[in-house]
Automatic annotation (TrEMBL):
UniProt KW Membrane keyword: yes
InterPro entries: Glcn_transporter (IPR003474)
Name under which the protein is recorded: Idonate transporter
Lineage, broadest ranks: Bacteria, Pseudomonadati, Pseudomonadota, Gammaproteobacteria, Steroidobacterales
Family, as annotated: Belongs to the GntP permease family.
Length: 436
């Protein structure tokens, strides 16, 4: 009965979001209430369970995600993203523009949240197309694959960050493992796959001809790269140092300095000075931009909180244990199972973030039962949540309209690229699991 209750809850969530178009946070709360009743949770405990689930989830994530949103806004508005793109194109030369764009999307995608990155980088794609005379798909797909990979695999993006918390994984290790699987995935799903799309007809590009910053308005190359990659360097550095032999006081200091909250705060403060105040931007302007970033991320925070409510219902009703026993006995590798659950929900709902968070509540008990690496489970679920973007995904339509291609060619290019990212992500997660 409890398993049927979980299936019913997931079906209800899908119906509310995909069919009735209910706002995802409201849909999660409704689903959590109904699931609590169906699963036999005492009525007097239901409000407290939902409140606890939301609070526990957001308590550990809201600071990191909000600071990450502000940091990404700074990278975008300062021109650092444009400088990174131009520097990489100069480094790789005209013949390797697709590779340069893939790396640009990946590097810029680390601090930038996906929707912001998409809107920011697509005009930059067309700027490169105008200058290089290359086919738009050969330039655009590598860039967008880099953004997508960072969005699905790497903290501080909302879904991977939330999955780290739900699975009890380590932020630093997840980031390092994510970078390891991202590189081969990016090369195949980006520049290599884009070569097969060169002949796809793209509509008039005049609408999206960008207005770029002048050379004098752009920050320096070192400054741009250093700021954009500072969170990765700090978190990864603390993780590497954690393997060393240090006295307790030093180890405590390393753990403190590597805490994601502190890392994002330091990165934001450093960026505010080097990309903002020192380059003539007023503090008030920076704060106004940060305010816009918080407003942009509010919806995602609510979705994460709603997912926490549903997860807590599963835990408090005892279904979490039963789900773990059931999934643990399935004749499928745990990482593949986590990927499949996220894949199925992604197909139904469209949103990669919602798919990953919903899948996490279902497969979380599998980690303890199977003993699988929690960091790799974060990446497997993240890969599944990127699969087969289609007509119920807003990014699908953004790509179609920005590139002005037919529905058929959108499936052939965008959907296929996302599917390659998700499939290759799983393959490399499994290979990394075998090597560890």
């Amino acid at each position: 009965m409890t398993i049927l209750g979980v299936v019913f809850a997931v079906a209800l969530l899908i119906a509310l979001i995909a069919i009735l178009r209910v706002q995802p946070f409201v849909a999660f709360i409704i689903t959590a209430l109904v699931a609590a009743l169906v699963l036999g949770l005492p009525i007097e405990k239901i409000p407290r369970t939902i409140e606890r689930g939301i609070g526990d989830m957001l308590g550990s994530l809201s600071i990191v995600i909000c600071l990450g949103a502000m940091f990404g806004k700074l990278i975008a508005d300062s021109g650092a993203a444009q400088r990174i793109a131009e520097a990489l194109m100069h480094l790789f030369g005209p013949s390797r523009v697709p590779l340069a764009m893939a790396l640009t999307g990946f590097i810029v995608g680390i601090p930038l949240f996906y929707n912001v990155g998409f809107v920011l980088m697509v005009p930059l794609v067309f700027s490169v197309v105008y200058r290089s005379k290359l086919p738009p798909m050969l330039v655009g797909i590598p860039m967008l694959s880099g953004l997508s990979i960072a969005h699905g695999f790497l903290p501080p993006h909302p879904s991977p960050t939330a999955l780290v918390a739900q699975f009890g994984a380590d932020m630093g290790k997840t980031l390092m493992y994510g970078c390891l699987i991202s590189v081969p995935t990016l090369l195949i799903a980006g520049p290599l796959f884009a070569r097969s799309l060169k002949r796809i007809a793209v509509g008039s590009l005049d609408l999206f001809k960008p207005t770029t910053l002048t050379e004098e308005q752009l920050p320096g190359t070192f400054n741009s790269f250093a700021c954009a990659l500072l969170p990765v360097v700090l978190i990864s550095g603390a993780t590497v140092l954690s393997y060393g032999s240090f006295d307790p006081a030093t180890r405590t200091l390393i753990d403190f300095l590597g805490n994601p909250m502190l890392v994002m705060l330091v990165s934001l403060l450093v960026g505010s000075v080097t990309l903002g105040v020192s380059r003539g931007r007023k503090l008030g302007q920076l704060m106004e931009g940060y305010g816009h970033a918080i407003r942009d991320i509010a919806g995602i925070l609510l979705i994460i909180g709603g997912a926490g409510a549903l997860k807590q219902v599963f835990v408090d009703s005892g279904v979490n244990t039963e789900l773990g026993d059931l999934l643990g006995s399935a004749p499928i590798h745990p990482l593949v199972l986590g990927w499949l659950v996220a894949f199925a929900i992604r197909i139904a709902l469209g949103s990669a973030t919602v798919a990953g968070l919903t899948a996490a509540g279902i497969v979380a008990p599998l980690i303890e039962i199977s003993g699988v690496d929690a960091n790799l489970m974060v990446l497997a679920v993240g890969a599944g949540s990127l699969m087969c973007s289609h007509v119920n995904d807003s990014a699908f339509w953004m790509f179609k309209e920005y590139f002005q291609v037919s529905l058929r060619d959108t499936f052939r290019s965008w959907t296929m690229m996302e599917t390659l990212v998700g499939s290759l992500g799983l393959v490399f997660v499994l290979l990394l699991n075998a090597a560890l």
